[in-house]
Amino acid sequence: MSLALLLHSPRRLRFNPTEGFALALVVPALAMEAMFVFAPLVVGFWFSLHDVRYFNVGRFVGWDNYLAVLNSQLVVNSMIVTATFAALSLVITFSIGLSLALYLERDSRSAVLMRTIVLVPYVVSMLVGSLLLKWLLSQDSGVTQALLLPFGVSDFSILSDPKSAMGALVFNAIWRDSAFAMILLLAGLKSIPRELHLAARVDGASAWYRFKRLTLPMLKLPILITLIRLLMHFANSLTYPLILTAGGPMATTETTTLRIFRLGFSDYMLGRANALTFLTFILNVVLLIALVRVFQKNGKL
Fold first, then answer.
1. What is the pLDDT of residues 117-145, one digit of tens each?
2. Which of 82, 115, 126, 241 lies closest to 185 in space, CA to CA?
3. DSSP summary character for residue 58
4. Chain centroid offset of residue 237 CA
5. Read out DSSP for 117-146?
6. Which of 62, 195, 248, 260 has its CA 20 to 30 A from that of 266?
């Protein structure tokens, strides 16, 4: 069909009220998306190609900011810390969330009560939870120091030791986000028809066999969504390391997001901060694609 015929077609020029109403609903959302997502992305990429200090856009430096952050030992260390923190938090949080979802699947009074108790840490904000844990682990007035005092290790500071500080950071993520994993996986478990389990039980299938051959295959999409959501959350979390450990001791808990924060708002090197932000974004996309490919390769999707 030619362009002239398409433009003069009465069917094309007819106004459909339903389509107009749908368009009216979509346009504001697209405008907000462009204003708060795409516009900052464009500005951030523009900053990453310039020498920006104290919000003053200087000379064009091209890819020098990207090369500078890639050659920075602090940035490399932050990526290693991020990978360690995200991997440990993801595995443990997902395992606990799946275990809680399986254990609390039934709608009994005790299960409903336990779900409510488990959800309490998730209701608490990340800021408040991190401050509370920091107070509990404080060497001066923390509860842990009072518990360690009878054993003669009162001088030990959990947040001052590199290994224990990373453990505290991972624990801070686990105790709050395990409930979120439970919610997503529990929703997936509720979508599985009970008749399938009853039929498998009548056929003599054991609990492990039903879980392996029935529950897990039907939980493929909730599991993928949970893993993606948790991975992106842990890999890009700023509140946990900023509030609990401040990146210490000796930058052993300084994640990539915390390094970006310090480059931008402590060192005022916004060009390099935006360059590291875009590199982190690319890494996130690669991780997402790799995770989906793993599920596809194993026949999970």
1. 888 888 888 888 888 888 888 766 666 66
2. 115
3. E
4. 7
5. HHHHHHHS-HHHHHHHHHHHT-TTT-HHHH
6. 62
Q: Where are the domains of the chain?
A: 17-60, 65-297
- pLDDT, tens digit, for every residue of 72-128? 899 999 999 999 999 999 999 999 999 998 888 887 888 888 888 888 888 888 888
Q: Which residue type sits at 258? A: L
CA separation, residue 260 to residues 136, 238, 265, 271 (Å): 28, 10, 8, 10
In this structure, are strands 56-60 and 50-53 parallel, antiparallel, or unpaired?
A: antiparallel
In order, the DSSP letters of 273-293 are: HHHHHHHHHHHHHHHHHHHHH
The first and second tokens of residue 269, run together, are 């090197």
**Among the listed residues 256, 79, 89, 113, the one whose alpha carbon sits nearest the alpha carbon of residue 167:** 89
Just give the CATH number of 65-297.
1.10.3720.10
Sorted by sequence, the CB contacts under 8 Å of residue 222 that are 6+ apart come out as: 184, 185, 187, 188
